[in-house]
Recover the amino acids of this structure.
């Protein structure tokens, strides 16, 4: 099983220290990261869902993130990313229940 990295643990600790929640901008500011380290901060925040139970709510134009606790077992995958459509064939093979899987090879 994977474990959270140092940056993941820092973000989780910040969210624990601020039970009212933090926006992405506030997380960036409080971590005091260099510009090159900030490039993947949103992805790392999303990755936290693997190990922690996070909630988000909209406040004005921004999303506020809160941490509710740790997961007993990490979540390995969030989804497979297959696009399905009811329409005509777009190179995909027939999939489930009349749907077409447009991202699968034609021979599948």
């Amino acid at each position: 099983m994977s474990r959270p990295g140092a940056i993941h643990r820092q973000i989780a600790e910040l969210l624990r220290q601020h039970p009212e929640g933090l926006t992405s901008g506030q997380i960036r500011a409080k971590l005091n990261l260099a510009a090159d380290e900030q490039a993947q901060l949103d992805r790392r925040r999303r990755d936290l869902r693997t190990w922690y139970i996070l909630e988000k709510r909209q406040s004005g134009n921004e999303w506020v993130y809160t941490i509710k606790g740790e997961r007993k077992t990490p979540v390995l995958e969030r989804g497979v990313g297959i696009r399905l459509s009811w329409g005509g064939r777009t190179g995909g093979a027939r999939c489930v229940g009349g749907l077409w899987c447009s991202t699968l090879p034609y021979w599948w």
Residues 80-108 form one domain. The chain has a mean pLDDT of 78. The chain is about 30% helix and 20% strand.
